Every structure is written in C-alpha cells, then in structure tokens.
Amino acid sequence: MQGYDPGGFFCEMLRPGQPPHPTLTLLMSRLAALPIGSLRQRAIDAERDLLERGITFTVYSDATAIDRILPFDLIPRILTPAEWQHIETGVVQRVRALNMFLHDIYHERKILADGIVPAELVLKNAAYCEAMVGFDVPLNTYVHICGTDIVRDETGEFRVLEDNARTPSGVSYVVENRHMSLRVMSDLMTGLRVRGVDEYGLRLHQVMAEIAPPAVSDPQVVVLSPGIFNSAYFEHVFLAREMGVPLVEGRDLTVEGGKVWMRTTAGLAPVHTIYRRIGDDFLDPDTFNPESMLGVRGLIEAWRRGAVAIANAVGTGVADDKAIYAYMPRIIRYYLSEEPILKNVDTRICAEPDALAYTLDHLHELVVKPVAESGGYGLLIGPHASKRQLEDFARLLKADPANYISQPTLKLSVSPTLCDQGVRPRHIDLRPFAVTGKDTWVLPGGLTRVALKQGTLVVNSSQGGGTKDTWVLA
C-alpha cells in the first residue's frame, strides 16, 4: 500500500470522513504487511488458474482472439452490513417497480395514459414487443434476473447507473472470484465473517421451478445458449452446472403438439422452463427474425399457451432502455408510492429540445450514451475526448438526438488495485444480481468491475476492465 493516494476520490477502503471500521482497518494492515512481490506472484497464480479453468469471455471487436480471461484483481472490495442493506433494499424496490411497469405497458398502459412516461418512448421503442400485449406471464414477473449497475460518487452516495433487465451477464465471475480469493488470498480473509455467494444456483433453480406450468410437479429446466461463440458462453456453462440442468442450443429443442421437447439420446424429453440467453429477435423465427438459426420455431406460441415458461420474459428491453431509466424515480413513485431508495444519476434525454441544447453546449463536460447500446460501446466521455471527437459526436447527436442521453461526469469511487506501478487507486462500479419469482432475493455482493487503466472511467470487460471479489461483511 506504499504510495497509495486516492487523489480526492472516495476510496472504498479508506472511507474519508467516516468513522474507522475495524474490519477495514485490519484488512489495510494485512495488505500493508504483504510484500509487493508476494502480491505479484499471487496475481500470476490467479491468471494461470483462470486460463486452466477456462474462465473466459469473447471480445467481438478483436478478430485475433476468440477467448481471453477477464482480469482479476486480488484486492477485494468491501461492503459493510449497513451499506449492503441499503443496496439490497434499493435493488428489490427497483425490481418490483420494473415488473409492475412491464405488466402495465403490456396491459392497461395506465402510466402512459397518466402522462408519467411519454407514450412514444415506450410504444415506439425498438424493444417493445407487440407479441407480449395482453399476455399474462407467471407471477406477473417479467424480469427474473436483473443486474443493476451501481456507482458511488465523491460523497460516498450510491447511485444507479442503469438497469439490466434482458440477459445480464457476470454472475459467474462473482462466484468464481470468491473461489479465487479463497485459493490465493485466504490469509487476508482469516477470521473475517464474509457472506457467501454459493447459493446463487440453488436460488435461480428455485425461481425457474416457481414459474413452470402449474400442473408440473418436477419441472425440467434448461439453459438456452446461442453457442460457443457467444461472449458469455463460459457463463452459460456455469449456470447450467450450478443449477444441475442441461445446457442446450436452439437445435436441441423442438415444439411438437404445442409443447417444448428436448432431443436426447433416449428420444424426446419434455422441457418446462427455459432460462434463455438469446436476444428477443432470435428466439423464435415464426414470431421474430425468420432468418434466425439460434432459436426454436413455435416457442412463443407454446409459451403463450402456458406449456412452457421463459425467463427473462420477451420485451423486457423497454425497461432497461437508457431513456426509460431517466423516468425510473417517477415509475417507482407511481407504482409503489415510495421515494427511490437508490437515486439515479442525473440524466437528460436528448430527444427533448432543452436537453439537447444543454448537452451540445456542455459536451466537453458530459458523458453521452446511446440508449440501446451496452458494454461501453458508442459512448462519449467529454472530459477525455479530443476536439475532433467532440465535433464528430456533436454531428451524431444532432442527426439522431432521440438515440442519446447525457449525464454529468461522476467522480467514481476508487479501490486499491494491483497495477504495474504497485497498489494504486482505480475506479470501480458494482452489479448486484437479483433473482425474482414469488419473492426477490439479491446475491450478497455482486460483480465489482474495475477500470484497470489509469484515469479511465470505463469498467466494461469489453473495454479492458477487470473484476474484483466483493466481500459483504456479515
């Protein structure tokens, strides 16, 4: 920890302005006692372990490599019990509101009639699915698995950056990171009470069983993957293994007699719940993209008839659209009559003339994001952009303002991270995972992503970020 200086950012380990926390003080002293050479050797061991275990992801923009490991930083991110309770209750609140919003926009559309959310933002949204109108999903749950991206500002306050309600990735790294910590950093954890993360597979399977057709006593669950070339294929394998269920591709399933069947060596076997990791457009060539080779013909009709359940539901992309995100505080108040526990980052919707004018005038100060992109693609970080980049982006913005939102550049919190120069502060975020059936359960901790390059705010793995183990103190 020699020479460590958070440089005016809120540090997750030092907690400026907060009373000393005994566990954090103990961890700091243990880290300070570790020679830098020991840390580097452990990092090498961890990297070798990740490669041998095949814990990888794919960067589509890199034509030279199919798989690469997701960099793992040894120094954990710590959350106190009080901090975790605040995050957990805030995530549960947002998931409740998201599910109520989705049910409403596919049924009565009261929130649109009351003018709380502009109707065109929903009904003209590319993710809005006409096939879902009037369809009642089991338990009124559309978002069974939600990944809520949370950051911490310079005051130490947690704020939601976005809701991932389609097919959020990363939970496999939460569990594998813990296993890695226990292998290479067990001395750091000795005597500490840290909440476990191994319950996820059990909880996920429980929810998949809860939404199965009601007449089925022992439902067959499967994980539906687009296949080995998908960036999150390792996670698909992991999820199937953790739940103890088959991992299938579209070609392994068929719809006959209005029901879904899985091809096995012993013949056709019934399937009752599908945890799908395929986008809406490719799920069923009869209903969506007729060219899709990834999905299952007739699947949506079988779902509508109640012969199978699908998680997450089709059409949930409206709820995690970045323009809809700006209305989440109002959505929470509308459906729950509660104030948001976790605040949004201040957001301007560039489709609105005043917001567009402000964004263009302050482009050099703001973060501007396309509403339908993810993974850190297509965004502009004004303070880090060149004059040419600002000019080019302004043209994009003027040509299609409805495709963008803008936000202030946050001073994201930092955490001690092992770098070439030693232990240095690097910006982080957090993605807790909520699993919802009859109730919502949140995995203690979540995926802490870290921006490994000095000064950068982009933590996405596709943009060179890594991960940390997240310790929730019991």
From TrEMBL:
Stretches assigned to the Circularly permuted ATP-grasp type domain: 76-451
Annotated Pfam families: CP_ATPgrasp_2
Coiled coil segments of this chain: none
Name under which the protein is recorded: Circularly permuted ATP-grasp type 2 domain-containing protein
Organism: Rhodopila globiformis
